[in-house]
Amino acid sequence: MKSLEKLFSLLGKYRKDVIIACILVVIETSFELIIPSMMADLIDNGVSAGDVHYMLVKGGQMAVCSLLALATGLAYARFAARAAYGWGAEIREMEYEKLQSYAFSNIDRFETSSLVTRMTGDITVMQNTINNGLRPLMRSPVMLLLGIIFSFSMNAELAFVFIILTPLLGIGLFLIVRHVAPMYSVLQTTVDSLNSVVEENLRAVRVVKAFVRDEFEEYKFDGVNTKLENTAIRTNRTAVLNLPFFQLIMYICVLALMFFGGSMVLEGSLQVGQLTGFLSYVMQVLNSMMMLSNVFLLLTRSLASAGRICDVLDEKVVMKERENPLRNVPSSSVEFRNVSFSYSSKAKEKTLEDISLSIAPGSVIGILGGTGSGKSSLVQLIDRLYDVDSGQVLVGGNDVRAYSLHTLRDAVGMVLQKNLLFSGTIRDNLRWGDSGASDEEMMEACDKAGAGEFIRRMPRGLDTDLGQGGVNVSGGQKQRLCIARALLKKPKILIFDDSTSAVDSATEKLIRDNLRKLEGVTKIFIAQRISTVIEADCIFILDNGHLAASGTHDELMKTSGIYREIYDSQMKGGTL
Amino acid sequence: MPRMVSARKPENLVYTVKRLLAYMGRHRISLLLVALLVVISVTCNLLGTYMISPVIDSLVSGGGMAELVEGVAITAVIYAAGVLASLGYSQIMAASSQQIVYDIRKDLFSHMQTLPIRFFDMNQHGDVMSYYTNDVDTISDALNNSFTAVIKNGIQIIGTMTMLIIINWRLSLIVAFSYALMFFYVRFSASHSKKYYKKHQSSLGSLDGYIQEMTAGQKVIKVFNHEEENLKGFREKNEELRKMGTAAQSYASTMIPAVVSISFLTYTIVSIAGGFMVLFSLTSFGALASYLVFVRQATAPINQFTQQSNFLLSSLAGAERIFALIDKESENDEGKVTLEKTENSSWNWNDGGNRIPLRGDVRFNDVTFSYVRGHSVLTDVSLYAKPGQKIAFVGSTGAGKTTITNLINRFYDVDEGQIRFDGIDVRRIRKADLRHSLAMVLQDTHLFTGTIRENIRYGRLDASDDEVEKAAVTANADSFIRRLPEGYDTMVVSDGANLSSGQRQLIAIARAAVADPPVLILDEATSNIDTRTEDLIEKGMDRLMEGRTVFVIAHRLSTVRNADAILVLEGGRIIERGSHDDLIAQRGRYYDLYTGLFELS
After folding, report:
1. What is the CATH number of domain B387-406+436-594?
2. Which residues of chain A have pLDDT under 70?
3. Is B557 close to A273, i.e. CB distance below 8 A?
4. Residue ranges per domain, chain B?
5. Are A107 and B99 within 8 A, CB to CB?
6. Nearest Cα to A260, choosing from A146, A383, A175, A163?
7. Whole-prediction pTM
8. Beta-carbon pairs below 8 A across chains A and B
9. Homologous superfamily of A2-314 in CATH?
10. Sheet with A390-395, edge to edge strand ranges
């Protein structure tokens, strides 16, 4: 419930619309409630007395009220829709903005698909809560209250029937809702597990077919399917109890009114028209209770979505900028001082432990090491994608935490291992590096990255559309475009995280030679192949989070056992 | 409740309804009972309300307490029956609807298992998932709510109209006119709102796509300081959606107030007209009172009936999509040749009584193949692999390497030419048996939620724990598995996210090892595996390959070197073939690849 409160507190400028919408519902409802009492008057005072004038006046009043109800109803539709969609858009923007402020470690905690759902499907659920829930939520109490007041003023004795039965209905419906609410969350989990079986089956369809496991998959599916069936039956059976219960109370109410009202008519203390009017109030009041219980069901169902949205909004952003941060990176030197780092505070072993190293401005650096040795983690500390646990990373002689993030990341160009291009043209993608780059500058960067050659061969050149995720180029071409994009940033430090794995070795050499010529830029290569780093000014070998050795190729061949082992295995086996 | 009405409508209504009825037919008795109980429940409701009129009339015309008690008692019995009927039908329907949906999901999934790989290659996972998440859901909703609602409201409308006509046919002309007006207004409004709905859907789709792409690329955005720019793009699309959504919803929400107001106006007109009729003694006082209650009561069912029938239509559109999938042709399999175990636990092909030992001899004769007609992916490919031989495919992306492996196990069938397995055309072999004699280790290994043991056992479901562990030893996976906190019982979650890519590869090798087939198809993993794990994998693969016919899409030199034959593919043709030394001597494409002059990915 807390998450719902929080989200409703975010209505912001749409709060006004919600309030107006609420007022409109109240007015509309009041008109609807006045009409039956006018009708009672019309019959009792007009028809029974044969007063045609009175009949017409009351009839006219009823017609006016109907039209006013229409006008307020239509106005309500506008305001409520504006509020619902405005609110949805607002929350979505807040989520998205929050996501932009996330550090890498925050992003790691969510799966992409779940983040997307939290910004799309879950928001729709919340909007529907307003769209479908606001009107009955406002109407019901008004109907209830006015219904009771009117019926009291009509005949206080008869109204006691309400006083007894309405709370009974309320309690009953409340109990049903409370019972069913936790069942819905169980149901949702069951649905999720069914979906994940299907998803897994789709993803691994080649494995399923290759091992002829269709029957086994059907068996697995049948398990979750049966479970879902049973859970859904149990949940729905409870939820639909509210209908017969409601009818029961309503019918008792009508019967009681018939009996007591009838007796009063017999005594002469009640008029027939009043009794009819009274009966229609009964319907209205009880109906409103029913609607109210539906609203609560709606709210319970939206709780899960609200919680998921709040997860995104409440996630604590772990990276903060210092006040008055530095806005200039003076040089391209990098230094690690006793750096330790782990992705999670719960991790038993640190990802990086007590790393100290220093990189001179403009040098070419290679980093080697096995999977999980911490290479990628090491370089991601340089542009502060993650923060160190202890120790210090210095760029240009200053702690990275002293810079504004924008300044620091502008100074560091990084080609990630899992690098992405975005939908749009090649030009659109290159502009990520430098939004004002001219075609000449772009082609120059592309030439350095070994991408110029294939771009020129494409009929539309820089205007070639890449499609979503860069599907229209090969893996090697994609990597070269990513390198060009990083070069356009003209950074002081360039980091390549295994970013030429799909590029053939001849082109790779060409790219490396071009990069070498970038003066004053520190170049750091993470690689699997020794050939990539063999000419580096200094090679760092990481082993299990520790800096195992450093030096040039020749030095390491003499001093490092690990290096020799890697060298031997690669020269023996080789890689195509 | 005002919901936007989707633009979806089934194309072939009659067929879809028939299919859906066939599913409902399995629960014929329950559903007939539901219909019966709905009728009883509604009738009781109407009769109970009708009773007000004679009871009041009897009071006005001088009846006493006895008549009143009698009237109330009769009404009470009617109402009691109504409540019981409601309880009965809602409970039965809650169960039946889920049983029907269960059947539909089951058939959907089972049929999906029989569809050819082509289906999965042609359709995005998200689209296929939406059969389960959206379409089945709308059917479930429709069965839960709309089915009974349409019956109920239909009867209520007919019943109320009948009652109204019986009580006062003259006034009923006015009411009938007003009902017709409401009905047409709701229909008109629904069809008009589709225009808005479509616009809303398309801006929603565009925003979803944007969020999807940018969220996946969030890390790149950070590296390039692109947050601001990115927010700008988001805001534009978000604002567009807000506008479209507001317009569509505003329109959809006008329906209820309009209907309610029409009904109030009717109420007013009927009151006055009825008043005059009483004055002219054309109707009784009590009759008018109960008539007016009926008029009030009639509004809700009309409104509901029209709305629910719209939901029903849109859920039928979902049902149609599902049935279209269930009607899709299954993977064809006219193979008659089966695999059978001999007494000394080796395997034989049974070709109509003619027994041929399973050896693993694979030959391609002039195979031509295209995924899309007219765009050949393989042209005139001929090759052979004798039992125990290792054949390596080398070539750039799109050269046709994967396609060749897809043809061997008949994920796809050849257009021209022939593939023979132990001398038998693969199309004559029952698919399940053919695939049992082959195992695949793919580049992107897919694991399932479950323990590591279960994942390895996927290769052969009746493998004992001992056999599973032996297979893991063969694959070089045993040692790392044992070092995991839960060993073989470690849970694999979301496609093995808790394992490294190298470890996943090792498990996939173990999975193939436990299947123990005579022929292996391997697609070597390329990047992001360090040399040590690569070493483990290589040794595991080598052990797995022993004594088997192997087709391998090679990325590593060591694999290629050890191959009996290397086939270099380009543009769907074999351009070079021979041993490593032969090909190096030829100084052709293989030489270029080998010396790194050509890109391979």
Report:
1. 3.40.50.300
2. 1, 346-348, 371-372, 467-472, 502, 505, 569-576
3. no
4. 11-167+307-329, 169-282, 387-406+436-594
5. no
6. A163
7. 0.76
8. 452
9. ABC transporter type 1, transmembrane domain (1.20.1560.10)
10. A352-359, A334-341, A390-395, A398-399
